[in-house]
Amino acid sequence: MSDSTATTAPSGAARANSAAPLPGEEWVRPRPGRTGYRNDLLLALVLAVATTISLVLFRVTGTYEDTAGWQSTLWVIAMTLPLAFRRRWPEAVAIVASLAFTVAFVFETGEMLFSQISLFVAIYSVGAWGRSRRVATVVRAIIVSGMLAWVFWQLIFYSAVQDYLPELPRDGALSPYLAYGLINVMTNLLYFGGAWFFGEAAYRSARARALLEQRTVELAEERERTQQQAVALERVRIARELHDVVAHHVSVMGVQAGAARRVLDRDPAQASAALSMIEQNARSAVEELQLLLGALRSEQTETGTVPAHLDNSTRGVEQVADLVADAAGNGLPATLSVIGDARTLPGGISLSVYRVAQEALTNTRKHAGGAATADVRVRYLPDAVELEVSDTGVGASAQRRGAVGSGLGQLGMRERVAAVGGTIELGPRPRGGYRVRARFPLPAAVASPLPQAQAQGVPSSTNGVSAGDPGAVPTGATNAVSADAPTHPLIEPAEITTTESTENV
């Protein structure tokens, strides 16, 4: 910059950027820590020493020799030391530096080298560290407009003074004096425009960095929440699987153990048979637990759901007949009716039908009373499959079913049905007993149109199927697994007593 100092407003791009509303405009740049303030103090001291040395050298050359030493000292202090607070009070520092620079230029009391560096840093700091963008813009605009007015006043005033730069002629369309003035203007525009532009760029860069850091923190928190939710969902799934695997077999083992205890003295053979049944159920429970634990230890699918070999296990709607036969063999007379055209169901839906039927029969066996019977119905509808398990439970345990207990059984059924987009109804029947009814919607690829006979209101035929032949289910027929399915000779319904509990296993 030349001796004639001035400034201008920033370039059009910088002015447009500073005026345009931006996301996060309310963001306030945080103050630096102690290290930042120490660096500012060091910068101020370095500039003070450099300015003092420069001023002494100028005085040696005969420049500024008429200025008193105390005046030069005060000027150096006012020009440089406020920079130690440039990030704490940037607007005030810029105003003080501008006034000191103007005084030095008007009265020729200071040097024009390091003082220009100090003024550049002061104006830059307003843009980079101003907490209020409006105040920062106003302060810089006042400084810039004042300097610009001063430069133009100099050019106009001194152009009329013939003894000012007399070696430069003033004639011609572009005289050397005019060229000299334009050089001064362009130099000052670059100088102050650069201080404005780089200060604004530093602020925007800091804001973008802060927003990026904030977004990074938010993403980390969201990832942690997602992981916690995944862990919670996995725990629920494991608990549901363990409940479904264990509850059924343990329930049967409890019934058989109670029966064995009652006949142990008078009929050791029947007691031994009951113990054999307990052993069989214990082995089955261990096998299913091993299957479950093996599936949990295996690598999960990309969606993080249950491994495919667990969903597509041997348990499905086709094994509901085995559940009914097992219930009949353990003292709970039960029938199975398959209504509609049986078809292959998706693995998740088929497994859910099986588990809901298993849980409902387990609860019936535990809480419905010794004289209760169960009725299981599987309905294949055009766009869904329905499962209904009802019983004729009577007595205190049946009346209080659902009143107390952990509620894990019903909760597990609700979760399983909801997981495949279905609905479930659970509650006592008006004429006694309890009913569980679940509806599982089928995908379009599995759903089928209503058979012609059913569409015309013609009832399907009914064929009896024993519990020992669950596979003989004719298409479109209603098939029953009779309550007369083979039962173990030890387990008589009249002999079975259950503790007063709930269906909510």
State the helix count. Answer: 14
Sketch the major β-sheet. Answer: 7 strands, mixed
Overall mean pLDDT stands at 75
The CATH class name of the domain at 317-441 reads Alpha Beta
The CATH superfamily of the domain at 317-441 is: Histidine kinase-like ATPase, C-terminal domain
Characterization of the model:
This protein is α/β, with parallel strands linked by helices and 505 residues long. It has a domain at 317-441: 2-Layer Sandwich (Heat Shock Protein 90). 56% of the residues lie in helices and 9% in strands. The chain is built from 14 helices and 7 strands. A 7-stranded mixed sheet has the order 4-5-3-2-1-7-6, covered by helices on one side. Helix 4 (90-107) packs parallel to helix 6. The chain is rod-shaped and about 135 Å long.
Top keywords for this entry?
transmembrane, alpha/beta, 56% helix, 7 strands, 505 residues, phosphoprotein, disordered N terminus, Heat Shock Protein 90, seven-stranded mixed beta sheet
Fold topology:
Elements: H1 12-19, H2 34-60, H3 69-80, H4 90-107, H5 114-129, H6 133-159, H7 176-263, H8 268-297, H9 308-311, H10 320-329, E1 334-339, H11 347-367, E2 374-380, E3 384-391, H12 396-399, H13 408-419, E4 423-428, E5 434-441, H14 452-455, E6 462-465, E7 478-481
Helix pairs in contact: 2-3, 2-5, 3-4, 4-5, 4-6, 5-7, 6-7, 7-8, 7-11, 10-11, 11-13
